[in-house]
Write a sequence for this structure.
């Protein structure tokens, strides 16, 4: 098998130039869209061609039907070696690497090989043997990881993390923006936050306190996360420096004991990690002294980072330069966990949900939390009842580590556990701007409850997408463009499946559309697809098999009673009522609303206009009955002539549409039997 693969590879060595050109075009697309720190993944793959050999063997085994799950998990070792040193978006890097491997294996059928390899790695995931985590989680998590979900938040990103930057190239202190994809653990809590960062041309002043050759977190920078001798954090980087000014001359230089321990970190590839050659001595960086005196500033640069304190330095040639304590724009909700992962193999097969803020990915959390693991296993055994039984909330509380908090601990307006989840997921504490307390007032509490509900729906959707609806979500694929210049998500099969459900199973259609909508709640790059195929669950109301009384919201809602004799009340907004044959005897009940609002009754597939009889019922009600069944819909106060009428339009699956005038006319048509015809306040 190995010889066969090697022979095939050698057959195409002469075509390597053509193949690498194709890879370069894809990496250009990936770099433009997802690798804002400009790492050269193409160089990594081409430079480590030898490491693709085992993957070549694996693909050959797959073609012969001899591959196993263990084979694919083991493949993580090789791919992780290809990605050594890369710390940006590992999912995007993994995809780029997969395409490079496929290109090496063959130029004939390159697209087919790459697509198949991509599909299989999505199915099995790629484990990182060095950290114990995932390079690429299984179960189609790529859809949300490109470029990365935005996550729940209680405010916009803030200028919260402060290190001193040294101007190395003598053109002023420069930074890069939050959008460049750099992660760094500013506050030392094992969660690296998405952050603005120093430009590759300048450097951070650092003190490698533990001597491990890495700058692990903000305590090894000089800024507001530097720990002072009294145990408190410094107010800014210059005040942190003053503690090391032994002779109190306002300057740090070779006359101070710490000088030879200070270094300049020039993060040349902007990956938030120290790579070989990036830590410079002060002499290597050409710095002779740093002034500890500073001036306050309110300048925000073009990258969104605040230069709050500015100072000066002296170069070794005697010329003066600039330093600045830059308060980086930081998104504490968008994080990467840098702590111990060590995911057990059995947990890797369970549903995966990524974490936000100070909440680890679900797999990592379950590894150290037996209760959480048991709750997720309970969800897997019966996903349908998870929400109604309270299991979903118990999972979220345990996952965020807030299950021990008393529900009333944050005042009377919100469950303290829900607020604590949002605080953990956003990476910041809640503070009431009105009175300065940490307990929200009623108005703020409603906003926070809605944010928690969205997060809860998102978590549920990701669990359901890997359990009850795994087959449906498996229809969504990532495909390469014909010219291999990029990749796109293909939702065609998923959309066709939804269309089929719409005609045959309205309840399942609505539920899957709701789940899809929530699944993409934090993926703004797929908002168009979310709006096209998804239905907002906040405006979807689905009944049970029993008799239900369903009340909508003040927005544009969809109400479906299902089987049973249900009462449907849409409330304000342009509401849509759904009805299929066999749904029983429903009642539409109105609320006082604007005459500009239009409420629509939509009949399902198989119900045509000639099967529906329209009659008056009582003094001002409308009755629609379906031929050959006991199904009917009573529309209360249809003929009242006021704003309480809940129905303005009836639509059929074949496109037939009845307006109010059509309904009135049909209600006044006599039959061959004895009829009672009721007029309206208009000209009848």
């Amino acid at each position: 098998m190995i010889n066969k693969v090697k022979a095939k590879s050698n057959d195409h060595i002469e075509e390597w130039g053509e193949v690498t050109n194709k890879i370069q075009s894809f990496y250009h697309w990936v770099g433009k869209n997802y690798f804002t720190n400009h790492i050269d993944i193409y160089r990594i793959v081409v430079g480590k061609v030898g490491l693709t050999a085992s993957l070549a063997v694996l693909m050959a085994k797959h073609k012969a039907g001899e591959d196993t799950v263990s084979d694919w998990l083991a493949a993580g070792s090789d791919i992780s070696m290809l990605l050594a040193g890369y710390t940006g978006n590992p999912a995007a890097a993994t995809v780029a690497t997969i395409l490079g491997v496929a290109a090496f294996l063959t130029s004939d059928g390159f697209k087919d090989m790459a697509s198949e390899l991509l599909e299989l790695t999505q199915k099995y995931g790629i484990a990182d043997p060095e950290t114990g985590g995932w390079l690429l989680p299984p179960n189609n998590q790529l859809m949300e990881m490109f470029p990365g979900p935005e996550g729940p938040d209680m405010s916009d990103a803030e200028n919260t993390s402060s290190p001193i930057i040294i101007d190395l190239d003598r053109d002023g202190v420069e930074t890069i923006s939050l959008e460049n994809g750099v992660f760094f653990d500013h506050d030392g809590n094992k969660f690296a936050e998405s952050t603005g960062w120093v430009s590759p041309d300048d450097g951070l002043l650092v003190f490698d306190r533990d001597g491990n050759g890495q700058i692990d977190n903000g305590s090894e920078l000089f800024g507001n996360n530097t720990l002072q001798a009294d145990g408190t954090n410094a107010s800014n980087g210059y005040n942190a420096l003053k503690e090391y000014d032994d002779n109190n001359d306002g300057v740090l230089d070779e006359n101070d004991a710490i000088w030879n321990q200070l270094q300049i970190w020039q993060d040349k590839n902007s990956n938030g990690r120290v790579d070989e050659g990036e830590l410079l001595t002060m002499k290597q960086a050409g710095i002779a002294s740093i002034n500890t005196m500073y001036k306050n500033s309110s300048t925000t640069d073009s990258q969104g980072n605040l230069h709050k304190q500015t100072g000066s330095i002296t170069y070794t040639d005697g010329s003066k330069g600039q330093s600045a304590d830059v308060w980086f724009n930081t998104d504490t909700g968008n994080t990467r966990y840098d702590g111990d992962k060590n995911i057990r193999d059995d947990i890797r097969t369970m549903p995966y949900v990524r974490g936000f803020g100070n909440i680890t990915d679900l797999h990592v959390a379950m590894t150290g939390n037996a209760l959480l693991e048991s709750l997720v296993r309970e969800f897997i055994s019966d996903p349908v009842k998870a929400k109604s039984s309270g299991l979903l909330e118990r999972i979220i509380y345990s996952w965020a580590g807030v299950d021990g908090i008393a529900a009333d601990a944050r005042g009377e307006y919100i469950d303290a556990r829900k607020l604590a989840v949002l605080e953990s997921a956003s990476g910041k504490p809640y503070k009431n701007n009105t009175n300065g307390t940490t307990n929200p007032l009623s108005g703020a509490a409603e906003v926070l409850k809605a944010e928690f509900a969205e997060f809860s729906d998102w978590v549920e959707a990701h669990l359901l997408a890997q359990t009850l609806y795994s087959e449906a979500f498996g229809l969504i694929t990532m495909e390469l463009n014909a010219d291999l210049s990029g990749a796109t998500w293909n939702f065609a099969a998923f959309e066709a499946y939804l269309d089929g459900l719409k005609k045959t199973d309205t309840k399942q259609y609505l539920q899957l559309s709701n789940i899809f909508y929530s699944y993409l709640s934090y993926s703004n790059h797929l908002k168009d697809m979310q709006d096209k195929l998804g239905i907002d669950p906040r405006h979807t109301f689905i009944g049970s098999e029993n008799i239900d009384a369903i009340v909508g919201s003040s927005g544009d809602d969809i109400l479906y009673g299902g089987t049973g004799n249900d009462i449907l009340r849409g409330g304000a907004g342009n509401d849509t009522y759904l009805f299929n044959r066999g749904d029983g005897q429903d009642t539409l009940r109105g609320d006082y609303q604007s005459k500009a609002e239009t409420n629509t009754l939509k009949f399902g597939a198989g119900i045509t206009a000639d099967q529906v009889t329209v009659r008056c019922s009582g003094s001002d009600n409308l009755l629609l009955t379906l031929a050959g069944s006991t199904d009917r819909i009573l529309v209360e106060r249809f003929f009242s002539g006021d704003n309480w009428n809940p129905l303005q339009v009836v639509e059929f699956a074949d496109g037939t549409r009845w307006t109010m005038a059509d309904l009135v006319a049909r209600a006044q048509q006599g039959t061959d039997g004895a009829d009672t015809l009721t007029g309206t306040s208009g000209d009848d």
